[in-house]
Amino acid sequence: MKAKKGFYDFEEEKLSDYQLKVLTKFIDLLQHFEYINIPGKSGVPQEIESP
């Protein structure tokens, strides 16, 4: 990802979208296994959704 090429070719915009998607999945996984709890929120906190 650092070089924006390799197995996947990343453009600047697509890179940030990909990173957000991976982070969202990771936070959802942590919530699913109850490692984190965000009261009143489902999915990713609002602060993270808007880069």
Compute the CA-based radius of gyration: 13 Å
| Largest sheet: number of strands, sense, barrel closure | none
> Uncertain regions: pLDDT < 50 for 5+ in a row?
none
How would you sum up the global shape? elongated
User: What is the share of helical residues?
Assistant: 40-55%
Give average pLDDT, whole number.
Answer: 75
The succession of helices and strands, N to C, reads: HH
Derived structural class: mainly alpha
* Share of β-strand residues: under 5%
Tell me the number of strands: 0
N- and C-termini, Cα separation: 18 Å
- Count of DSSP-assigned helices: 2
Describe the structure.
The chain is mainly alpha-helical and 51 residues long. 49% of the residues lie in helices and 0% in strands. The protein starts with 11 loop residues before the first helix and ends with a helix.
Write the layout of secondary structure elements.
Layout: H1 12-32, H2 46-49
What is the compact description of this entry?
With 51 residues, this protein is mostly helical. The chain has helices at residues 12-32, 46-49.
Kindly list the characteristics that best describe this protein.
mainly alpha; 51 residues; 2 helices
